[in-house]
Amino acid sequence: MEVQLLEATEDPEQVICTAARNDYSEAFVGDQSFAETMEEIEGEDIEDRKETLIGHLLDHGHFGPFEHPQATVAVKGISRSCMAQITRHRHVSFDVQSMRYVSFDDVDPDDVREGEMVVTPPSATDPDWVGRNQQTGRVGEETAEKREEVFSEAVADAVESYQELLELGMPPEDARFVLPIGTKVNVVMSMNARMLMHVADMRAAADAQWEIRQLTENILDLAEEWCPITFEYYDEHMKNRKNRLAP
Question: Active-site residue 203, yes or no?
């Protein structure tokens, strides 16, 4: 999996603070500088004042201003299973690599066994992996090796069948039916800062599936660089408080 920030609102926390101050300012924020807009907020300098205001907004559930800044990320190589989970968030905008128009006729099944084209879950190789509905995941080494063999052969067989169907003239949109739900896909997604916090409440939680949790954590890492005060505060004070920021 790879996650890249493609585009984002410049100076997002200035946008957040300006929007928030608009709600309580007699003056029109469009007619004054940002320093003037923030002069009534406690702090020694403008950065201190942004921290004060953003912390106050998050503490008091005033989430509307966080809907203004938006970020677009490109995601490489998540499973169709993970894609199905993340696209349930209808306030996020998505474009998903099409398996109707993109075919995988030149992928070597041997490479598929090594993790090319299909996501390999940790439980396929880790004898100590504990799934959500398991009390323990510990199995013997022989069982773990057999599990990895069965998984890798199953996905390779599926890809070989898919490629054979293409050679027999079946269109990619129909041949894809034999591919596993772990088949990798690329996604572009856009969301505002509030929506990202909501997604993180749901998808970075301990009971979320491992892949979507990893995806969400990767996006949060980018968000801490893009919108640092907001997402550092979220990480320290609000993360894992499930459903607090309902959209």
Answer: yes
* AA letter at 191: M
Q: Which two tokens stand for residue 240?
A: 């894992």
Task: Estimate to the nearest angstrom the gap between the alpha carbon of 64 and the chain centroid.
Answer: 21
Measured between alpha carbons, how far is 213 from 211 in angstroms, rounded to an integer?
5
- CA separation, residue 213 to residues 139, 141, 178, 204 (Å): 24, 27, 27, 5
Taking alpha carbons only, the member of 3, 225, 231, 196 closest to residue 92 is 196
Q: Which residues contact 94 (CB under 8 A, 6 or more apart)?
A: 86, 87, 187, 188, 189
Q: Residue 8 forms beta bridges with which residues?
A: 71
Of the candidates 58, 55, 95, 16, the one whose C-alpha atom is nearest the C-alpha of residue 201 is: 58
Model pLDDT for residues 146-179, shown as the tens digit of each residue = 888 899 999 999 999 999 999 999 999 999 999 9
Q: Which of 203, 213, 241, 244 is catalytic?
A: 203
Compute the distance between CA of residue 38 and CA of residue 236 in angstroms, rounded to an integer.
Answer: 24
pTM above 0.70, yes or no: yes
Measured CA to CA, the distance from residue 17 to residue 77 in angstroms comes to: 36
Residues whose CB falls within 8 Å of the CB of residue 96, separated by 6 or more in sequence, listed in order: 83, 87, 185, 186, 187
